[in-house]
Structure formats: structure tokens, C-alpha cells
């Protein structure tokens, strides 16, 4: 019967004749059913009803009905009502009779069942956005924290976190209470970790955060268990990120933990905190760059080394960090140590690590070129070329390859005269090797990535004229794609490779037209290759031709079952 009712609702939910009232009436029948299964079925369908009919009158009536079920039902039904409140948070402001809804839920707090009281506290926490300043609820949460039942205390901690996010007065009032519970020697380690996580939201602003920070710093020394230390690190980092003014001190603390802590879980928590604080890179002290590089060099776990590199990746998005770590500042400010570590990491056998380090160095080099600062990019170019070649030795390295290709393109765009032609030659050589390794699987994906990089290089205005070294390899790839049958092309990549190769050729020919008179033979070869392809591929080829710069306009026109590319020149209009 339950399955029949559910299917009936789902089938009729899209029909216009079932309005909001009929849908609510159907769910109300389920709520008043004597079977728990049908009641649960009706409760869990309310979020979908709210999404389909977000009307205040309907939502208000529905939540009042759910509050009645919460007041009169068992704990299993209360749990599902709690889930509805959590899933429908964005519709809570449409409840009109807030007092009546609160009265029905609040009455469960007088129950003798601690589980029922815990569910009531969690439900009140879920709707904290519409009752943030209700003093009776604040008092009930405080009583819940003093309970001897673990389930009720955990629910009170959850409600505290929710209300503190909406009420600054409540956060300030509960700060001392939570601090006393954290400092109590009888508090279990897992409970202390939950309380510390709650302190992240109840500090009450930058002024009161100072006291919470002192408490958390003392916890690191008094309670050295892994769960307590990780929770304290997470809370300290969250408060520092919120208040901003404590970022420098927190960065130094996390670097000290990352360098000296023997427990991998604690060390990793510190590195995750550094990654979050890297969003405020401008506030990092200059010497912390050197300490970060030192901590990364001392890492024995490859996962910790990758976390350090990701922190550096976030840091170098900030121009101030790029300037401090650039070649013009020398090694005294910490930039030399960071660059030295990244250069060593680019030679790592772990290609993911090498690609991440190359990305960090590329951002530094590109920033220096853009700001006309002293820079040396030849070593980075060698490292990127080696990385591209290394990714082709074994399968499964597409992601590091794409990172390296992106770095090569960025470096070439920053200084085309030094790197663009060399990049084109490198990619052309790898394209021949990738196509020679087979036309399917890993080799096919590698070839597509290489041609995409060439297209990105040709898309930059200052790099188009440097595509000439790649033209022979592109012609060979074009011949291979042009000779492939239509059915084979559709089975493999639906003509994507041919479209990309032709796009790069359009870009190169557009630049060559400015220097010499070109033969029309390549256009005829393109037409022959496009004839055997499907209509979608031919459309993409024509669109690529239209988008190429400084070339005659090409328009697709179907004729005798295939596409021809008509060459027309734009009309010149006289402007008066």
C-alpha cells in the first residue's frame, strides 16, 4: 500500500490538475494514519512539496501539522520531522505562526525521555534562524548542557552551535559556559573535541575571541590527546580566519606544529589549517615562506608534501607573495628557499607532486614577467619539458600532463619570444609520439590534450606567429584523421581530434597570411576530410574557421549530402 501511494504521488506530481491543496490533503491523510510506515512516508515527502509549492500559507500549515506529529508521535517520527526541518531550512522564514510552532516543539522538552528531549533540542537548533533570541530556548539549551545523558548533551552542543551563528548575545552568554566544560577534568576526550568545535562559533567577535584563543592555546598543552589537539587546531584556525587579525600568529603556530609534531594526524590537521589561512596570504609574515619550505623539505610522508605544495599553490595567487618569493628579493626573505624546494620537487618521480610544484613556479615566473621584475625561467622551461615527456612514459598521467601543458601555455603567453616557439616544437614532438602509440585509449587522450594546448597557444594574439614548428606534426595528424572512416571517428571521439587539429591550422594560417601569399591547396584538403564526416563535425569545422582571426569568412552550406566551405570576403562599408 505504501509503494502504491508513493508511486501515485510521484506520477501525479507533474500534472497541472493536482494543486497545492490536494497535495497537502493527501499528505495530511498520511500523517493521520494509524500506521507508522504511512506516517513516515508522508513526512519525508514534505520537502518535495515545499520545493514545488513554496507558498507561505501552505508551508505554515505544513509545519504546524509536522509540529503536532512531533508533539504527539514517537521518537522515530520525531527524527523524520527533524530531517524535514534540516532539509527545508530555506523555507523556514515562511512560517507565519512561529509562536505556535515553537510551543508544540518546546513541549517535548518536558518529557521524561532524554532521547525525546535531545530530538527537541536538535529540532530547535535546526530552526534557529527564525527564533534566534528566544530566551526560553536559550535556557533550555543551557539545561541540556548540564544533563547527565550523553545524547542530550550532544544535542545541546549542536543547538548551541546553531544558535550562536544567528545570535551574538547567545554566543557571548554561552562562551564562559562552554569554556568551563572544556576545562573540566572529568570531560571525556570526544566530548571535549565537540565542545571545542562549538567554541569556533561562540567567540562573539574579535574582542572576545582573544579569551577563547588563550583557552584553546592552553588546551594544546593540558590535553595532548589526538582528538583534542586536532579539534583545538581546527577551532584556532577558524577563529583566526574569521577575525583576520590573528592570522599571523596562527600561521606561526601551525608551522611550528607541522615541523615538530610526530603524529601524522595532528601534522596533517596543521597543514589543512595552513591551506585555509593561505586564502589570507597577504597577512603571512615573510619569514613564514622559508619555514613552510623547510617543513615541506622535512616531510617524509608524500601526502604531507602534497599538502605543503597545495598551500604554496594558494599562496602564490597573491601578488604580494609572488613579489616576496620572486628572484629580485633574494633568499633572505624566504622566497629563495621556496623556489629551491619547488625546483627540486619538479624533478620528483611522483608526477603529481612535480606538476604541482611546476604550477607554483609558473605563477611566480609569470608574475615577474608581467610586472617586469628580474626573473629566470629557463630552468622552469626545462622542467616542464621533462614533465611532459615523462607523462608519456607510462599510462595514467593525464592530470599531471594537463597541469604541465597549462603551465607551458601560461609561460609562453607571458614571454612569447622566449618560450612560444619552443613550446610548439615540444608539443609537436610529443604529438607524433602519442599518435604513433595507438589511436585509442591513453594515447588518444594524450594526443587530444596536446592539441588542446596548441590551440590555447594559438588563441593568444602574440603566440600565433610562433606555431610554425608544430605545422608538420599537425599536417601528419590531419592526414591520419582525414583518412579515418566516418564510422571509426564517431566510435572514438566524434571528430573532436580533427576539429582541434583544424583549429590550430586555421590559427597558424591566419598568422602566415600576414607574411606571405598562401596556396589554396590546404583548403581543398580540408574539404575532402570534412566530406566523410557527419554533419555535427562539419558544423564545428565551419565554426572554427569563422572564429579564426584575420581569415576569410567560411560558411557551411549543405550540397549533395556533404558540406562545402564557401569562401567569401567581408563587405567593406564606408563610415561617414
UniProtKB/TrEMBL annotation:
It holds the Pfam family INTS7_N. InterPro entries: ARM-like, ARM-type_fold, INTS7, INTS7_N. Residues 24-547 form the Integrator complex subunit 7 N-terminal domain. It comes from the Eukaryota. GO terms for biological process: snRNA 3'-end processing. Gene3D superfamilies: Leucine-rich Repeat Variant. One of its GO terms (cellular component) is integrator complex. Residues 1-21, 547-576 are annotated as: Disordered. Belongs to the Integrator subunit 7 family. This is Integrator complex subunit 7. It comes from Papilio machaon (Old World swallowtail butterfly).
Amino acid at each position: 500500500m505504501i509503494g502504491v501511494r508513493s508511486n501515485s504521488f510521484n506520477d501525479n506530481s507533474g500534472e497541472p490538475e493536482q494543486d497545492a491543496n490536494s497535495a497537502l490533503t493527501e499528505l495530511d491523510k498520511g500523517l493521520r494514519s494509524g500506521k507508522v510506515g504511512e506516517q513516515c512516508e508522508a513526512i519525508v515527502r514534505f520537502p518535495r512539496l515545499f520545493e514545488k509549492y513554496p507558498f507561505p500559507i501552505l508551508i505554515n500549515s505544513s509545519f504546524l501539522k509536522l509540529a503536532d506529529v512531533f508533539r504527539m508521535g514517537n521518537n522515530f517520527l520525531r527524527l523524520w520531522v527533524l530531517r524535514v526541518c534540516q532539509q527545508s531550512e530555506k523555507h523556514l522564514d515562511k512560517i507565519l505562526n512561529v509562536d505556535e510552532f515553537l510551543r508544540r516543539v518546546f513541549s517535548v522538552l518536558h518529557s521524561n525521555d532524554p532521547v525525546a528531549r535531545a530530538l527537541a533540542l536538535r529540532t530547535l537548533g535546526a530552526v534557529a534562524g527564525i527564533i534566534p533570541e528566544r530566551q526560553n530556548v536559550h535556557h533550555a539549551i543551557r539545561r541540556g548542557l548540564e544533563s547527565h545523558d550523553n545524547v542530550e548533551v550532544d544535542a545541546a552542543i549542536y543547538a548551541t552551535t546553531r544558535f550562536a551563528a544567528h545570535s551574538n548575545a547567545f554566543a557571548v552568554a554561552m562562551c564562559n559556559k562552554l569554556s568551563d566544560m572544556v576545562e573540566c577534568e572529568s570531560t571525556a576526550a570526544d566530548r571535549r573535541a565537540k565542545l571545542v568545535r562549538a567554541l569556533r562559533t561562540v567567540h562573539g567577535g574579535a574582542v572576545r575571541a582573544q579569551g577563547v584563543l588563550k583557552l584553546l592555546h592552553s588546551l594544546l598543552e593540558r590535553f595532548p590527546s589526538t582528538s583534542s589537539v586536532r579539534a583545538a587546531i581546527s577551532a584556532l584556525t577558524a577563529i583566526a580566519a574569521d577575525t583576520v587579525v590573528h592570522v599571523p600568529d596562527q600561521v606561526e603556530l601551525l608551522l611550528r606544529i607541522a615541523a615538530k609534531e610526530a603524529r601524522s594526524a595532528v601534522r596533517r590537521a596543521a597543514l589543512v589549517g595552513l591551506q585555509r589561512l593561505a586564502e589570507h596570504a597577504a597577512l603571512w609574515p615573510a619569514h613564514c615562506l622559508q619555514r613552510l619550505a623547510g617543513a615541506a623539505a622535512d616531510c617524509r610522508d608524500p601526502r604531507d608534501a602534497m599538502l605543503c605544495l597545495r598551500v604554496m599553490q594558494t599562496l602564490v595567487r597573491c601578488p604580494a607573495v609572488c613579489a616576496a618569493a620572486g628572484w629580485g628579493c633574494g633568499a633572505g626573505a624566504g622566497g629563495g628557499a621556496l623556489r629551491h624546494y619547488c625546483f627540486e620537487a619538479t624533478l620528483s618521480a611522483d608526477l603529481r607532486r612535480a606538476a604541482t610544484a611546476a604550477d607554483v613556479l609558473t605563477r611566480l615566473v609569470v608574475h615577474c614577467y608581467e610586472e617586469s621584475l628580474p626573473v629566470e625561467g629557463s630552468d622552469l622551461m626545462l622542467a616542464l619539458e621533462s614533465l611532459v615527456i615523462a607523462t608519456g612514459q607510462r599510462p595514467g598521467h593525464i592530470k599531471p600532463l594537463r597541469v604541465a601543458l597549462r603551465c607551458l601555455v601560461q609561460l609562453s603567453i607571458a614571454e612569447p619570444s622566449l618560450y612560444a616557439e619552443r613550446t610548439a616544437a615540444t608539443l609537436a614532438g610529443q604529438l607524433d609520439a602519442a599518435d604513433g602509440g595507438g589511436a585509442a585509449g591513453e594515447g588518444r587522450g594524450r594526443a587530444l590534450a596536446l592539441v588542446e594546448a596548441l590551440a590555447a597557444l594559438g588563441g593568444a594574439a602574440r603566440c600565433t606567429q610562433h606555431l610554425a614548428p608544430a605545422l608538420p606534426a599537425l599536417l601528419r595528424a590531419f592526414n591520419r584523421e582525414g583518412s579515418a572512416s566516418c564510422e571509426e571517428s564517431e566510435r572514438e571521439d566524434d571528430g573532436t581530434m580533427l576539429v582541434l587539429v583544424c583549429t590550430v591550422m586555421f590559427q597558424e594560417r591566419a598568422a602566415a597570411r600576414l607574411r606571405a601569399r598562401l596556396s589554396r591547396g590546404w583548403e581543398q584538403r580540408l574539404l575532402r576530410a570534412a566530406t566523410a564526416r557527419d554533419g555535427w563535425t562539419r558544423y564545428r569545422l565551419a565554426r572554427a574557421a569563422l572564429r579564426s582571426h584575420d581569415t576569410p569568412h567560411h560558411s557551411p552550406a549543405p550540397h549533395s549530402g556533404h558540406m562545402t566551405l564557401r569562401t567569401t570576403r567581408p563587405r567593406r562599408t564606408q563610415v561617414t
